[in-house]
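1st attempt posting a full record on here, be nice pls
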Amino acid sequence: MKTASLALPVLAVLVLSGCAVNGHIGAESTPTPTAFVASGTISVPIDISATIAAQGGDGATLGEACVSRDGYDDITSGAQVVVSDASDKKVAIGDLGDGLLVKGPTGSTKLYESRCEYPFRIKDVPLGSKIYSVHAGNEARGERSFTRGDLTDGIQLTIG
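the predicted structure (as tokens):
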């Protein structure tokens, strides 16, 4: 009988210790995030004729394909978007998505006021910097600075 009475407490300790994670029974550890996703849009003036042609030639519809005006050829689908930290070190790279025709800055649906808007979403931007800079297009475009919160919420850049 003494053998059975020792086996039960040992079995209970083994079962309970197998359920403990980080000293807490049944708890799972949550990894600390090390990066975030930066997102936003960049809008540029449209080439009206090219946008109409890109949409089939029968006019232009908001939310459909667009073409940037001459002088904005560097802001296009697939163009690189670079995020740098406060020390100016490049820390993440992404691409602009497909451009879509959107209303102009006043909310007008007049075609000549419409813009071509390119979205971006950049994964794995490392945490740790108070300020981040975003650059897209040619070197003459410069860069704009934002907080992590701005980039997480989504930024809207307008060129031209």
